[in-house]
UniProtKB/TrEMBL annotation:
UniProt-listed InterPro entries: Bact_Transport_Assoc, DUF418
Matches recorded under Pfam families: DUF418
Domain DUF418 residues, every copy: 230-383
Organism (species): Sporosarcina oncorhynchi
Entry keywords, A to Z: Membrane, Transmembrane, Transmembrane helix
Annotated protein name in UniProt: DUF418 domain-containing protein
Length: 395
């Protein structure tokens, strides 16, 4: 079985990216409709429906879909690199230009739309990958594990011993009451200018520091995706389906177990770190493997092919999710901030994503790429867009 192709695109790759965007949106919805950055969610949500809804999102969704998107970003980076090598044209200048434009997208998104932006981080990691992508494939996976495991292991170990030395101290003051009130005032009751001022501060205090943490949390995932690309994971999925199935089953079992740790001992903060930093990526591998295997089934591709359309225009899908959600929840829009429960927010995310899938299907009936993708490509290639345009699925 050969991978299903659309032109030069690998359909399963777009499918995986589409599903990851849905999961990311469901997780991000917690931030869109509540002051999630500043609360202890295990104590902030008190109604039975919210407690159960958060538990499901926390275990099965949160921190388990952005790793997929990051790995697919790395997959696309290597596709671009290999295409440049095959065409005997410089890779670094073109990729640097692409990452510069993506960084501009991310900065505009973070400051003027939503402070939880990830594009700026991806762009910064993309600059690093201009060098890393040249490393032989046999070294990429060990490098990624090393870069991720050492700081993560030190953080979890340090937290464990601090927790044992002073039980309960790490969680004291975890909920920032003052910032919760400021967030509700800015987003729930403020004008666009007031929301903008708080958003800028929020990004400088939370978003920008997390960008630099991306070297240890996001870059390794991108490197893993690059390694998968060099090994031609999607192109050889049918050949390797037995191995993929074994990894999938193991990753799903371990991932769900680790993601459930905080509910075994909610007061142990190190369990939350294990859940997010270890369980999240492992469960992501399980989800990715499952979708890759399902993409070998014709009926699955037929039924869920529209989701691949949303993945094909992933930059547009991601940015439009923020635009729609902020207009729904912020006071300068529909003003629903703090007025919906988690279940409703999750259903809203799914509903909006369905509309995005329909839009993508209709869009591709006439156009070859999404609107924001077109701006990105046009900025990269300029007047030579139609001559040099490639289809390497970077985003």
């Amino acid at each position: 079985m050969a991978p299903t192709m659309i032109g030069k695109r690998i359909e399963a790759l777009d499918m995986l990216r589409g599903f990851s965007l849905l999961g990311i949106f469901i997780a991000n919805m917690l931030v869109f409709h509540s002051p999630y950055f500043y609360i202890d969610p295990h104590t902030y949500f008190t109604t039975p429906s919210d407690v159960m809804s958060f538990k499901l999102v926390n275990i099965f969704v949160e921190a388990s879909f952005y790793p997929i998107f990051a790995m697919m970003f790395g997959y696309g980076l290597n596709m671009q690199y290999e295409k440049a090598i095959a065409a005997n044209r410089p890779y670094a200048p073109l990729m640097a230009k692409r990452m510069g434009i993506l960084m501009a997208f991310g900065l505009i998104h973070a400051l003027f739309i939503w402070s939880g932006d990830i594009l700026f981080t991806y762009a910064l990691m993309g600059f690093i990958m201009i060098i890393v992508v040249r490393i032989p494939k046999k070294w990429l996976m060990p490098l990624a594990v090393l870069v991720y495991a050492i700081p993560t292991g030190l953080l979890i170990t340090g937290t464990y011993f601090l927790t044992k030395a002073a039980p309960g101290k790490l969680m004291e003051g975890f909920a920032d009451i003052q910032q919760i009130e400021r967030a509700i005032t800015a987003y729930g009751h403020g004008s666009y200018g007031e929301a903008l001022a708080f958003r800028v501060t929020e990004w400088l205090l939370i978003g920008l520091p997390s960008v630099f943490m991306g070297v240890f949390m996001v870059l390794p995932l991108i490197i893993i995706g690059t390694a998968f690309s060099k090994y031609k994971l999607f192109e050889r999925a049918a050949e390797w389906k037995g191995r993929i199935a074994i990894v999938t089953i193991i990753a799903l079992a371990i991932g769900v177990t680790l993601k459930s740790l905080p509910y075994m001992d909610v007061n142990a903060y190190y369990n939350t770190l294990i859940q997010q930093l270890v369980g999240g990526p492992i469960l992501a591998l399980g989800y990715a493997g499952l979708i890759i295997l399902l993409c070998q089934i014709g009926l699955f591709l037929t039924v869920f092919r529209p989701i691949a359309s949303a993945g094909r225009m992933s930059l547009t899908t991601y940015l439009s999710q923020s635009i729609i959600a902020t207009l729904l929840f912020n006071h300068y829009g529909a003003g629903l901030y703090g007025k919906v429960d988690i279940e409703t927010g999750t259903l809203m995310a799914v509903g909006i994503f369905v509309l995005q899938v329909i839009f993508a299907q209709l869009w591709f009936m006439k156009f070859k790429m999404g609107p924001f993708e077109w701006i990105w490509r046009k900025g990269t290639y300029g007047k030579n867009l139609t001559k040099k345009e490639d289809n390497a699925q970077l985003l």
